[in-house]
Write a structure and sequence with these properties.
single chain, 124 residues, alpha+beta, 6-stranded antiparallel beta sheet, 6 strands, globular, binds zinc ion
Length: 124
């Protein structure tokens, strides 16, 4: 179907494209990305998201006080200024949403792990 390059490994691929939208927010600072992925890159990204982040389940009240930093897995709920949101379409009609929070110091490596363009954030 898709004869366009995967935006992660930059090679044209066969088969349906997957779409991946990571965002990180801290106050007025925000970085977003929109990537079209091949199936293999989508599987890698999905593995990371499912390991590091929590699926957003609207019927569940999130327990902010029990949350670990999504990057270093430390429990320190007062000091996670960065919110991480990922929306992904791992299949054409199946939307998945993930959420997590990270420390200031963990924000840059988290952005790198999510393929977010940290340097575009500028001064924060
Ligand atoms: Zn790829
Ligand atoms: Zn951390």
């Amino acid at each position: 179907m898709a004869q366009v390059p995967c935006e992660l490994h930059h090679v044209r691929f066969r088969g349906p494209a997957r779409y991946y939208y990571p965002t990180m927010v801290h106050g007025q600072s925000q970085i977003r990305q929109r990537l079209r992925l091949c199936g293999e890159c989508a599987a890698d990204v999905r593995g990371f998201c499912e390991e590091a982040l929590e699926p957003v389940q609207p019927e569940l009240v999130s327990q902010e006080e029990d949350r670990l930093c999504a990057y270093c897995r430390t429990a320190d709920p007062r000091h996670y200024p960065w919110a991480v949101f990922v929306t992904a379409y791992w299949a054409a009609d199946a939307r998945s949403d993930y959420y997590g929070r990270v420390h200031d110091l963990c924000a840059e490596p988290m952005a790198a792990s999510l393929s977010l363009p940290w340097l575009e954030l500028g001064a924060r």
